[in-house]
């Protein structure tokens, strides 16, 4: 069973064009990771379309949820996650899964 870290509030919200919203969340690199650990970013709900970026590196676009991104190699001590959500601008249930 993976260890879960829910990325709840505080999310920064910034309006973009045509009702889209940029959600930004800063978080620390999870502790206790070793060479066999893998970390996934999981997004359960994100409007009708979203672009996902971690530490200025695009992870991809999502149109269907849930979506998973393996981010182990991208993690640094202080991380910045950006999710640009197209209308309807909702974002819910974002988490890290560590296995």
Short description:
The chain has 99 residues and is an all-beta fold.
Structure notes:
- This protein is an all-beta fold.
- The protein has one domain: Jelly Rolls.
- 0% of the residues lie in helices and 54% in strands.
- The protein contains no helices and nine strands.
- A five-stranded antiparallel beta sheet has the order 2-3-8-5-6, with no helix packed on it. A four-stranded antiparallel beta sheet has the order 1-9-4-7, with no helix packed on it.
- A hairpin with a 2-residue loop joins strand 5 and strand 6.
List descriptors:
mainly beta, Jelly Rolls, 99 residues, four-stranded antiparallel beta sheet
CATH topology: Jelly Rolls
Shape: globular
Number of helices: 0
The portion of residues forming beta strands comes to over 45%
Fourth-level CATH superfamily: Galactose-binding domain-like
CATH first level: which class? Mainly Beta
- SSE order: EEEEEEEEE
Radius of gyration: 13 Å
CATH architecture call: Sandwich
Mean residue pLDDT: 92
The main sheet orders its strands as 2-3-8-5-6
Structural class: mainly beta
Helix amount: under 10%
DSSP strand tally: 9
Main beta sheet: 5 strands, antiparallel
Q: Which spans of ≥5 residues are poorly predicted at pLDDT below 50?
A: none
Number of domains: 1
Q: Between the first and last Cα atoms, what is the distance in angstroms?
A: 7 Å
């Amino acid at each position: 069973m993976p260890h879960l870290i829910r990325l709840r509030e505080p999310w920064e919200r910034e309006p973009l064009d045509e009702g889209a919203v940029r959600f930004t969340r800063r978080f620390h690199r999870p502790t206790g990771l070793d060479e066999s650990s893998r970390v996934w970013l999981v997004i359960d709900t994100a409007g009708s379309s979203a672009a996902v970026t971690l530490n200025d590196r695009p992870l991809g676009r999502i149109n269907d949820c849930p979506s998973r991104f393996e981010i182990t190699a991208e993690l640094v001590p202080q991380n910045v996650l950006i999710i640009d959500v197209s209308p309807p601008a909702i974002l819910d249930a974002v988490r890290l899964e560590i296995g």
